[in-house]
Amino acid sequence: MRIRLALVALSIFVASPVLAQSTLTPKDRAAAFRAAGFKFAAGKWSACGDPGTPSYSPGQIESVRDLNGDGRPEAVITEGGTYCFGMTGTGYTIVSKQADGTWKNITGGTGIPNFLATKGVGGWPDIEIDGPGFCFPVERWNGKAYVLNRHQYDGKACRPQM
C-alpha cells in the first residue's frame, strides 16, 4: 500500500505539470485557475490559504484532457501541503471548459483523484479519491455533482474503518 500511495503521489508531483499547462492558452490557464477558486499573487496560484509552511506547493495544472467525451478539455488542478490537506498532503479541483468558453468548477477535495473506467451520467468517469489508508471513496457524477457511490481498495469493495 505504501508503495502504491508513493507512486500515485510521485506521479502528481513529478509527472510533467509544465507539459499539462502548455496545452492551455495563457488565457484559458488563468480562467481555469480562477474557476477553481485560486488567486494569483507573488507569481503563484493559491487557494488553500497556507501561510507559507515548508510543505506547501502552489497550484499547478496536473493534467488537461477530455474526461467526459464532450470534445472540451477538463483540467485537474492540484495544490499541496499538510497545513491545508493534512496527512494526504494534496488537494485537487477539476474544472471543465464550457461550450461558451468559460470554465466551471466540477468537483474537488482533499486527496489524489484516480479516474476509473466506470462512468456516471453524461460519460463522466468515476473518481477514486486516493490518500492514506486502505479503503478509498469512489464518487460518481449524478448529472449535477460528484457524490459518494462506494468504497473500494484495489478494485474490490471495502468498508472504511471509523
Question: How would you describe this protein?
Answer:
The protein is of the alpha+beta class and 162 residues long. It has helices spanning 2-14, 17-22, 26-35, 82-85, and strands at residues 39-41, 44-46, 57-65, 74-80, 90-97, 103-110, 112-119, 125-130, 136-141, 146-153, 156-157. The protein has a five-stranded antiparallel β-sheet with strand order 7-8-9-10-11. Strands 3-4-5-6 form a four-stranded antiparallel β-sheet. Strands 1-2 form a two-stranded antiparallel ribbon. Strand 3 (57-65) and strand 4 form a beta hairpin. The radius of gyration is 15 Å and the shape is flat. Mean pLDDT is 89; it is low at 1-22.
**β-sheet strand percentage:** 35-45%
Instruction: State the secondary-structure class.
Output: alpha+beta
Strand order of the largest sheet: 7-8-9-10-11
Distance between the termini: 19 Å
* Rg over C-alpha atoms, rounded to the nearest angstrom: 15 Å
Mean pLDDT: 89
Report the order of strands and helices: HHHEEEEHEEEEEEE
- In percent, how helical is the residue content? 10-25%
Number of helices: 4
Largest sheet, in brief, is: 5 strands, antiparallel
Principal-axes geometry comes out as flat
The counted number of beta strands is 11
- Poorly predicted residue ranges: 1-22
